[in-house]
Amino acid sequence: MNPTSVAPAAFAQPTPSELALSGHWTALGTGELGHTRLAALKPQAGPVVVDGAGIDALDTVGARVLQNLLHRLQQEGHEVQLRGWSERNAKLLELAAHRPDAPPAPATEPGLVERIGHATIGLGEHARGLVAFVGESAVALAGCIAHPARMRWRPILFNIRTAGFDALPIVGLLTFLIGIVIAYQAITQLRKYGADVFVADLVGVSTVREFAPLITAIIVAGRSGSAYAAQIGTMSVTEEIDAMRTIGISPIELLVLPKVIALVIALPLLTFFADVLGIFGGMLMARGQLGMGFDAFLDRINDGVSVTSYLLGIGKAPVFAAIIAVVGCYQGFQTHGGADSVGRQTTRSVVQSIFLVIVADSLFSIAFSFLDL
Amino acid sequence: MAAAEPVIEISHVATRFGDHVVHEDVDLQVLRGEIFALVGGSGSGKSTLLREMILLHQPDSGSIRILGTDLQSLDEAGANALRPRIGVMFQHGGLFGSLNLIENVGLPLREHTRLDEATIDEIAAMKIELTGLAPETGAQYPAELSGGMMKRASLARALALDPELLFLDEPTAGLDPVSAGGVDTLVLHLRELFGLTVVMITHDLDLLWQVADRVAVLGEGRVQGIGSMQALAQMDTPAVRQFFEGPRGEAAARRSSVHPGDGPWKQK
User: Which residue of A has its CA nearest to B102?
Assistant: First the structure.
């Protein structure tokens, strides 16, 4: 930024007890002067005459800087006299006068223990809020099941399209690539034992049971969970949620239930698609590396991957879907204030839903191992 | 003060959005030290004209000169030199939600000057007080403020660099009558203090009668009438007449003639 071509603020000391000001004492002109040069100014003890006749322009910024200087001089025991000040400039200087009741000092930073305490309480309240929100949604869902006419089908179908159908390309591509990666790693390891035909079992089981549901859920959390949080958050900032309540529409019924129901339907379907593409990726890799035909690979899949495995994988998807939709919507409703709050809650929704999905997945693994599935 | 010097010269400005013609041929001048109001019905292009004057939008043809600078031939460096000389108060405040008021008001100073942090905070606090906000408000965030406080804070930020030219977009819209009256006095006070030129968009008839020196009525892509409210009241143009007819227009005119410059709505 090159301010202006005007003469910047300057001062001179014709005699040790005189201070002659000149130039533009304005927001842009004063900056040239530099704080240190003013601070270094030390006139002779006794009265100081401040001559304002040479000032080309003065504004509140310059007036304030000058007032700070005059204030300091007075503190140091000088008696300050003004000379040659125009009426307007004198008035401005008066306006910028030093006030003892300066802005209150900002609150002191809380200590470590206090911060930990606040964070813990915040975490507890957050968990309680989430549980309360789940409860509220469940009650609304029960109401809708009792009176199916209240179910809003259009938004459900719309959400199935945006969260499900529109996600097909990205989910398909990523699981296909992951299928290739697993097959490649499996082949190199299994080859050592001469067991490389079992690559089909490994790719099949790991894709169907773990990778397809998990990767799909993570993609959907990033894609749709964040969108839910941002949409509801923006609506809450612009008072649309409040408007809905006053009209007598339950925001949970209109905004949350369709999303949850749509995702619970769409995510298992997406997971199935991911199963197919993941196995296809492994199949291509097996043919490339081992020369294993598609028929042979699919035969091994048939033997190695049980229907139970497949159903367990697909069965996890609705749970993940509910987690993603509920966390996204909950974070949206937690938005208060402005644009940066929307951003914060959206980030939280993605981080928390992915976190909870992985926790849920590990709980499933523990449960399945106890049940010997 | 050189009274006749124009700070804004708009000539033959035309603006279109696709097929929709907003300005056909707009001509007007604003003089230094003047309080100038732009009025007109919804869609008459007031806001677009304002956006063109504050360098947010380019007209399709015609020329706009602000503070002696032609906006058409302006490069980025020229625009950056011009911007600190202009202050804008936006209709909804336009305050940054992630900064508190002191930081919001201090931001232009931080960007454009080389003052130290403490001085910037002091100047910001001074501007906040100047607009009639309590000093404690400085630590608050925009989301915690009422509509009227937000407007005042936005005005404080517009004044941060002591601009020569101040634009106000609907300064009293959404305010209660007492706060709106406060804006009347504040605008007059600021002009008296700093010799500011003020351009405002408003529908507030009291503000027009009490504060504006000259008013331009926009309509059908042109300036339908320009002059003081008294002069406009004598005109026959339908677009101008609508501001004086009807109970509200007549009441505002009556208030201004009964208590010139000293109505009850001005008490704060």
Answer: A103
Domain B6-200+215-226: give its CATH code.
3.40.50.300
pLDDT along chain A (373 residues), means of 10: 61 82 83 70 79 84 84 84 84 75 65 92 92 93 87 91 95 96 93 89 93 95 95 90 84 92 96 96 92 91 91 95 95 87 93 96 94 84
Say which CATH number the domain at A78 has. 3.30.750.24
Instruction: Write out residues 76-135 of B within 8 Å (CB-CB) of A.
Output: 77, 80-81, 84, 97-98, 102, 109, 111-116, 119, 121-123, 125-127, 130, 135
Low-confidence winner among B112-116, B185-189, B250-254 (lowest mean pLDDT): B250-254
Nearest to B193 among A68, A95, A103 (CB): A95
Task: Indicate yes or no: CB of A4 within 8 angstroms of CB of B81.
Answer: yes
pTM of the model: 0.70
Task: Calculate helix-pair angle for B101-112, B147-158, nearest 10 degrees.
Answer: 20
In a domain, A105, yes or no: no
- Shortest alpha-carbon distance between residue B168 and chain A (Å): 20
Question: How many angstroms separate the most distant Cα atoms in chain A?
Answer: 104
| Within a domain: A121 | no
* ipTM of model over 0.90: no
Query: Under an 8 A CB cutoff, do B84 and A340 touch?
Result: no
- Chain A interface includes B142 (CB < 8 A): yes
Which sequence spans correspond to the domains of chain B? 6-200+215-226, 227-260
Q: With the C-alpha atoms ordered A231, A233, A235, A238, is the resulting torsion angle positive or negative? A: negative
3-state helix, strand, coil in chain A (%, to 5): 75, 5, 20
pLDDT of residue A32: 66
A163 lies in the same domain as A79: no
Domain that holds residue A250: 140-371
pLDDT of residue B202: 87
Supply the pLDDT for residue A338: 78
Helix A294-304 vs helix A257-290: crossing angle, to nearest 10: 130
pLDDT in tens, B9-51: 999 999 988 888 889 899 999 999 899 999 888 888 888 899 8
Closest CA to B148 of B169, B163, B133: B133
Please report whether residue A344 resides in a domain.
yes
Q: What are the phi and psi torsion angles at A58 (to 5°)? A: -140, 140
Report chain A residues whose CB lies below 8 A from the CB of B79. none
What's chain B's average pLDDT?
Answer: 84
Minimum Cα–Cα distance from B161: chain A residue? A27
The tokens 């940054």 sit on which residue? B96
Shortest Cα distance from B213 to chain A (angstroms)?
22
- Crossing angle of the two packed helices A307-333 and A112-146, in degrees rounded to 10: 110
Distance between CA atoms of B251 and B253, rounded to whole angstroms?
5
Cα A62 from Cα B119, distance rounded (Å)? 10
Predicted confidence at residue A103, as pLDDT, reads: 54
